[in-house]
Amino acid sequence: MMSVEVERKFVCNADTLKTLEKIGAVCLGQRQFCDQYFDTPKFELTLRDLWLRKRKECWELKCPTAVNGTIETSGEQSKAAALCSRYKEITNLPEIQLRLKEVLKDVCNDRETETSRSQEDESWLSKMNLVCFAEFTTVRRSFTLEEEGVQIDLDQADFGYSVGEIEVLVPEGGDVQSALEKIERTAGMLGLTGDQRVEGKMNVYLKRNYPEHYAKLLSEHVL
Ligand code: V4E
């Protein structure tokens, strides 16, 4: 139920598809989904680097891992690892609600925030003062490098931003180091050169739609 997503974003260009074919990546197909992100009006989740999302009726909470917390100051990780992000993904709704209750205990009234019994009942959102602050649709083409267990996604968001992602899912307690190495090897195969972190869809969405909050996330080193 819980896994760690290790990923590196990259800029895709006209040659990316050809390169994917050349390195033997297998196309898994194309799909389209709409993402809705939720937070309190004061952005108490995202300021803690917590990202609550609903996609295709499924909930997910991305939480920072311990490593994310020390990423800027440790100075111990390699340059390649610094280009990757890792987040713990919680997909079980009662677990998500428990975690949110802990984090938002000052915001919500305990008596009212019993965890939902059904997926359809979304009254917990308003009880925790959570509102949708971002909604956008993505067309995603996915590829896999089977021997590596790596997935490569090419995303086109409907607000006019495209980004690629090399991603490895590690079961909780699994080998993050080997995931980082797989991502680095894949980046090499794709000929990625830049050593700058590439912005995700949400970064760009926030910059355009919530510039003040975006600036705050930058200054607090969340983004
Ligand atoms: C903004 C953000 C998060 C929400 C979006 O996560 P992301 O993985 O970019 O979305 P997506 O659509 O690719 O999800 P998937 O289909 O892989 O589940 S989660 C963490 N952040 C903050 C963040 C950061 N600190 N640094 C970078 C480069 N990106 C995002």
UniProtKB/TrEMBL annotation:
Q: Which domain of life is it from?
A: Eukaryota
Any idea which GO molecular function terms this record carries?
magnesium ion binding; thiamine triphosphate phosphatase activity
Domain named CYTH is located at 3-216
**Pfam families linked:** CYTH
Q: Give a yes or no for keyword Metal-binding in this entry.
A: yes
Which InterPro entries does the record match to this protein?
Answer: CYTH-like_dom_sf, CYTH_domain, THTPA, ThTPase_euk
E.C. numbers = 3.6.1.28
This entry carries the following GO cellular component terms, namely:
cytoplasm
**Subcellular location as annotated:** Cytoplasm
UniProt cross-references to SUPFAM superfamilies, sorted A to Z: CYTH-like phosphatases
Oligomer status and interactors: Monomer.
Family note: Belongs to the ThTPase family.
Protein name (Swiss-Prot/TrEMBL):
Thiamine-triphosphatase
